[in-house]
From TrEMBL:
Keywords: CBS domain. SMART domains: CBS (SM00116). This is CBS domain-containing protein. The keyword Secreted does not apply. The keyword Metal-binding does not apply. It holds the Pfam family CBS. Residues 10-75, 104-160 form the CBS domain. InterPro entries: CBS_dom (IPR000644), CBS_dom_sf (IPR046342).
Length: 162
């Protein structure tokens, strides 16, 4: 049964998206909102105005961008005479100006809806990512996370282990 699973069976058809002209702050906001419903959500799909895939930004890229833009301020590292809350708030404003293009993953791992689970696993291993976009023609249909594959695999395994 497990080997019959396809990317389509495991993908999430609701996933966070932003436009390519969005700010880093918008991507962070969208990611946080997605995590309310799906705590293991970890990628935001970036689309152009026509709805075509431009790339993606994942948690690691967001962390790196925040470190470079928000936490780079030398005033945050100053001695005790600084109002830390105000300095952090000021530094966070940088995120509203930062564009995604510097943090964008332009070659995200891609799957077809009918790709079998072994192909899905191979894409994860080769790309060294724990997510992949499911594409049909030029449209993003969904996202598959390694946790989704794990749930599917272990559902059948647990029955065998009894």
């Amino acid at each position: 049964m497990m080997l019959r699973k396809r990317a389509w069976d495991m993908m999430r058809d609701e996933f966070p998206t932003v436009r390519e002209d969005a700010s880093l702050a918008e991507a962070i906001r969208v990611m946080r909102e997605a995590m309310v419903e799906a705590p293991d959500s970890q990628v935001v799909v970036v689309l152009n105005k026509g709805g075509k895939l431009v790339g993606a930004i994942n948690l690691w890229k967001l962390f790196k961008a925040v470190k470079q833009s928000v936490l780079k301020d030398d005033n945050l590292k100053a001695d005790g005479s600084v109002d830390w809350d105000q300095q952090f708030a000021n530094a966070c404003l940088i995120c509203t100006q930062e564009r995604l293009e510097d943090s964008l993953i332009t070659d995200p791992p891609l799957l077809k809806p009918n790709d079998p689970i072994l192909v899905v696993l191979d894409v994860f291993l080769k790309s060294r990512r724990d997510w992949a976009l499911v594409m049909e023609a030029d449209k993003v249909m969904g996202v598959v996370y390694v946790t989704d594959v794990y749930r599917e695999m272990t559902r059948d395994m647990v029955q065998i282990f009894k």
